[in-house]
Amino acid sequence: MVDAAQNPDSDGTSGAGSAESGEVEAARAAALEQLSGIRLSIDNIDAALIHLLAERFKFTQNVGVLKAKHGLPPSDPDRERKQIARLRELALAAQLDPAFAEKWFNFVVAEVIHHHERLQSEA
Ligand SMILES: O=C(O)C(=O)C[C@]1(C(=O)O)C=C[C@@H](O)C=C1
């Protein structure tokens, strides 16, 4: 139920009683229900992204250990260029902004490189 005191009509009154305000309220209540459903899906996707990121970092941790052990450089710009080109293609096909995909990738890789550097300094 939508509280009229918290959701006044556009004229600032409660609009109590009119048939029109009843319809507006019903439509708003339906919209809020729809919003809750959509937010459940958003929460599921956010959870999946966290799990995927955690898995990715487990693998990059393995890479960092290997690199530290064998004196390999923390970053590999050539590999990154190829990854970015691939991710931009995937983003385009998925109707995601390729610039955003690249920004996201660079953000994650910068963190990975920090981890690699820390492992190297500890080795
Ligand atoms: O593949 C590597 O060499 C990594 O260290 C992993 C990774 C990545 O997170 O994808 C991170 C840093 C490198 O510059 C390139 C790629």
TrEMBL record:
Record domain Chorismate mutase: where: 29-120
A UniProt-annotated Pfam family = CM_2
SUPFAM superfamilies recorded:
Chorismate mutase II
Enzyme Commission number(s): 5.4.99.5
Record-linked InterPro entries: Chorismate_II_sf, Chorismate_mutase-related, CM_bact, CM_dom_sf, CM_II_prokaryot
Q: Keyword check for Signal, yes or no.
A: no
An individual GO BP term = chorismate metabolic process
Name the UniProt key words of this record, in alphabetical order.
Isomerase
Whether Isomerase counts among this entry's keywords is: yes
Q: Which GO terms describe its molecular function?
A: chorismate mutase activity
Query: Which segments carry the region annotation Disordered?
Result: 1-23
Q: Name the chain's protein.
A: Chorismate mutase
Name the species this protein comes from: Schumannella luteola
Its ancestry begins with: Bacteria, Bacillati, Actinomycetota, Actinomycetes, Micrococcales
